[in-house]
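User: quick one, fold this
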Amino acid sequence: MRDDRRGQEGFTLPELLVTIVIMGILTAIAIPTWNGIMRQRQVDSATSQLVGDLRLASTRATNQLVDWRVELVSGSGNYLLQRSATSTSGDGAWQTVQSVSLPGGVVSGNSGDVIFHPDGSSEGLAVVTLSRGGSNISTIHIDAATSEVSVGG
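Assistant:
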């Protein structure tokens, strides 16, 4: 009799099991690393969003000749973009223009506000920190004299 299976090639069950085990080990190593990368990307995205809004408030203050404020709440992923309700600052009346939520569960480590003046200066918070889950921290610096907004360092 002739063996019809001669010439057929394939993988044996032990070979397949070893391959699956190796893939499982590699996946177990890769998932925590991937999650860390994703958390950092969310913090980076939130940082870019807040930096953009801080710069927008600074630009609007100088263009519209009224104070603009970014109000942050510690432990919250929300902040407010506000415009002075009067042409002269000091009375504390603010009109909320936009309420913004940071993406990906990112929260502010600061509570307070940054006020941008028409003369290009600012007051209030000089440093804003953002984090997700207590790690993946990003720092934003605001120069009071020039209202320059920078990230890091």
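User: anything notable?
Assistant: Residues 9 and 40 are 47 Å apart (CA to CA).
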